[in-house]
Amino acid sequence: PQPIRLEDYTPPAWLVESVHLDVALAPSRTRVRATMRVLPNPDAAAGTPLTLDGERMTLLLVSVDGAKLDAGAYDLTDSSLVLPHLTEGTHEIVIETECDPQANTSLTGLYQSNGVYCTQCEAEGFRRITYFPDRPDVLAVYTVRLEGDAAACPVLLANGNCVESGTLEGGRHFAVWHDPHPKPSYLFAMVAGDLAHVSDSFTTRSGREVALGIYVEHGKEDRTAYAMDALKRSMKWDEDAFGREYDLDVFNIVAVSDFNMGAMENKGLNVFNDKYILVRPDTATDVDFANVEAIIAHEYFHNWSGNRVTCRDWFQLCLKEGLTVFRDQEFTSDMRSRPVKRIADVKTLRAHQFPEDAGPLAHPVRPTSYIEINNFYTATVYEKGAEVVRMLKAIVGEDAFCAGMDIYFSRNDGRAATVEDFLDAMAEASGRDLSQFKRWYDQAGTPDLVVSGRYSPLDETYELTVAQSTAPTPGQSQKAPLHIPLTMGLIGTDGEDLGLYLAGETSEDGATERTLELTQHEQVFTFEKVPSPPVLSLLRGFSAPVKLTTNGGEKDWLFRMAHDSDPCARWEAGQTYARELLVAVTRAIAAGEKPRRGTRYADALRNVLTDDSLEPAFAAMMLDLPGEAELAQHIGQDVDADAVHAARSHLHKAVADQLGDLLLDRYAQLQSNAAYSPDADQAGRRALKNACLRVYAGLGNENAARLAATQFASANNMTDTEAALATLTHMARDERQAAFDSFYERASGDPLLLDKWFSLQAMSSREDTLARAMELAKHKDFSLTRPNTVRALVGVFAGANPVRFHAADGSGYRFLTAFVRELDPINPQVAARLLGTLKTWRVYDAPRRDAARQAVSDLLSAGKLSEDTYEIATRMIA
Ligand code: HT7
Ligand code: ZN
Fold it and tell me: Which EC numbers does the record give (predicted)?
């Protein structure tokens, strides 16, 4: 397959003014009649024949201006329909096609999920519904007439407002939907089926009354209240924080069980993976509730950042995704705890994006080429894309950022925009030159910052030397310096932040925190009026997505774990300390030496546990040791996954040994009889309670098993149930089996609970986990056609169980690639994404590397793969 390149972008030769779709739904033979008004694009080269994208459909009819075309009058291939004689003028084109939703297991285009018809058009699914210029820079006004069996499909939905509906002969009925906002085809959606409906309303700040609807399977209505509330809060927040108001009379959400990703922001008709709608205290954890809130917000915010202002081409994906992630992160920070949210986002970035940026799949936030665009919905585009927006805000300042957003939205409303359009708006609002900053979009890899500080008692100055570099990534051997905001402070010996006076600045500033701007390979900053040697606090608020090395050590980390006024930096001090300890323990175990017990580290955690001034959710995060995958990345080469696991288990046990009684005390204190609420305070207390259980379970003894089993038996909410199972799953004790059997019974008939049952087993560090995962892949409740279940079992095994997945004999890798091979013809998007979990293979030792390379090579030579999986497999071992 030929890659598509950013540098080859040309504007569309033809535009589409309006589309009328007439859809006659039938499970295996759905008919679509598309009537389009097309005209040559005045901004493109003239004389180009009309070319439409289309695949996996049967073409039944083509007509131009009322005249049916013979087969000889058009060129039809597997992926396009060309009308060679149509090179100019405005025309009405009619195309009739037929497709088979029931047989569509790829879940793109029109498909059925549990009998419900639904569509997924981003990125290129519309071309499976009709022939069309299926690219984001062709914006058209859509009218859709849906017709279906009234008993099987009482609900008929599409984008926009419903303008007509009625009954027809033969038990059929219809509805007509009109969306007045021009949109690209990827935002088209329709849904039809027998669904229950929960309704509410929202009045916008200018007085528009919006009817809100959430459609779910019958019997699930009592799990929608939180989603509806989150939607209303999102609508209000976007008005308050960004001045963005909703623009239709209807906003509908549909929850379906088979979905390739989390959700989709189709105009006025969001479609969701039901996992991110359906929550009730006895079926969903605090984290599930928080995900619902965040994803509802994310999709809603796309109404402006994505829909009103869309992307010119798929290389600009970060323009809508990075910006919208930034907006949903801000929303969550305002709804919950800002520092806790920031730390959680940093953890996600480190767990997913940093390894991506350091491995074979590394690519810039704005990639320059792709074979299959679905492979670029990545942590880099989404999460690093959001970090880039956050850095921009730090550099230009809050006021200019808000002004820049206003310029961006108003100037590009109804347009397909580019990263340059976004940066131009910010540059105009701030008066700043952002040309160097733009490198963040084009240069892949996580920058390394090496910082050293030197105190001079004679002149009471503190000199900070900062060097930046970025290692080569695939296709980019040379890296230029980036424009990096580095937020920092200096802490005095009493634990108080010092005033900062930067040499060479005229203003007597004295603020206790500031953002330094790095632009060169190496820079020196001198602070004056520093009365005694300070402790350096860097990367406050995680001001840039970089890896940081400083000349501080154990003493500094301990001091900052106790005193840093910035929660992010305080948490990071604990993580750095734990990481260094774990590396030392790994080395000691490998050398046959007695490993350290981390006494001082455990003491610092003791202080965290007894400090009532700390937010419980923050304390819970302080208690978490860095994970095995993160350690493997940190070590960076020749990693022995078993040694890393042994080291982490050793330190975990040592901490549990030293804090045992205190953990039990805190655990008991944090028990509560209050009625369950998913709010951040209650959730934070549960997080700390369950962190105490998790750390205590490091002892692995009878007491720990009993404690977890008792919690499992007495829990009155899913957060506590899941936490008990997540503890028991690693144990080889009778309590484990009993709890899992009981949970399975409870989960019967509930796919979302069954998925928890699969994933809690797949994450087990027990030696028999691979064998169990293989058994579970044949279980009657497992299905290759349900992405949630595939991710729950195979995704969790490969992505969240490093010691078993990275088994030295390669068995974990072979399990993954065999599975991908089976799944690929059924659902290429999900298969390719699963294969991506192998992206860290190069940091492991030679036997593992050889086994990983072999498993991927075998996959490539075993037969024809989809373009999705082929692209990931070839990049993986290039
Ligand atoms: N914009 C959407 C991304 C998306 C997607 C969603 C569902 C299925 C397939 C998909 N391909 C791309 C979701 C979002 O980021 O909001
Ligand atoms: Zn999105």
Answer: 3.4.11.2
